[in-house]
């Protein structure tokens, strides 16, 4: 502890009550203990802290904005680990407009990166509900997705280069703003999505894009999830790469939003108000608002005529567009207000999504009558947030006691439909013990060899992703 205080200053080594906020995960599911919380302010300080931990064999739990959903940033209960918070590494180092890149430190809040890019006349395309508090280091650690993956890809697709501190306290400077670099193994891709188990990402160089000239948003009432999948195919054909977002929400999910936030409401009357599903589409246009609106009306008009949609509301102003997106963004907040649920972050081929939801809903109702299926997500990239909430009269504790059984049922169904049990939230400690059931022996062995090669002491975020 004295060595850390000498390196960082006593104000940046937290213990006791000062450390408490770092010990509990955002969902309130995991609480751990730690020797202390180290808050370095530079990459050299990060390297110094890691080198000292390596010398002493002290485990390290990297933490960004502490908004993760799988417990990857929370220590275990032993109290033997050091939490390494990257929040003070929050500088925007460079914006290269001509190269369309931005280089930022890992503790930058995602929204601050978006704002800096916009001020330079560019778009940073990663966008998700926690963007006002999550940090880009955490986004990279879980290969975050969000609402624009359909057009721009996950965090990995948006990243050109990284700066990483290895488990030995060495600094790898891979901050290259190159679109093409085939000069060896792609170390960048190893660290992205590794949830702090291979090293500590301290900075990244990201791709930027031109700001769209116009964006159009529409909310579509749908008769079924099958209709949503058909509409997605029609939208892809009609809009091409201009289609930046395609979200889907079950009617009862929006019902939760209206229960918690009664000032919000659906902009439909008649048949559209009673639709079983709703989709939220966004198109980014490089020509003009009039061009975007004309394309929207043509494609969605054809969808109505074909029976893929019951009703359509197109936003005609930024305020109307924000109101439609606010419906989608309010879903996690409404869920949190209504109590804990059993959450799943899964991905499936678009062609299998409707079958998966139908089959899994039926399996859950047969085994646990009355539980509520809370289904929404990024249909455009096959990512569903398939959550299970309490049945009427069921206590929160009674539901959570079923979590291992529900995970097994849902994840087995995901696997049977050729999907993945983790789309964008990561594995952490939540899904660690589930992974061997769905990963092949060779794949798991390769992952363990990589871990052993890069972190032979096993000090980087132990107990996360892989079983010991």
Automatic annotation (TrEMBL):
Q: Which family does it belong to?
A: Belongs to the FAD-binding oxidoreductase/transferase type 4 family.
This protein's UniProt keywords: FAD, Flavoprotein
Pfam families per record: FAD-oxidase_C, FAD_binding_4
Is Transcription regulation given among the entry's keywords? no
Protein name (database record): D-2-hydroxyglutarate dehydrogenase
Q: Name one GO biological process term.
A: respiratory electron transport chain
Q: Cite the InterPro entries for this sequence.
A: FAD-bd_oxidored_4_C (IPR004113), FAD-bd_PCMH (IPR016166), FAD-bd_PCMH-like_sf (IPR036318), FAD-bd_PCMH_sub1 (IPR016167), FAD-bd_PCMH_sub2 (IPR016169), FAD-linked_Oxase-like_C (IPR016164), FAD-oxidored/transferase_4 (IPR051264), Oxid_FAD_bind_N (IPR006094)
Domain FAD-binding PCMH-type as annotated: residue spans: 30-211
Q: What PROSITE patterns does the annotation carry?
A: FAD_PCMH
Keyword presence, Flavoprotein: yes
One GO MF term attached to the UniProt entry:
FAD binding
**What cofactor does its activity depend on?**
FAD
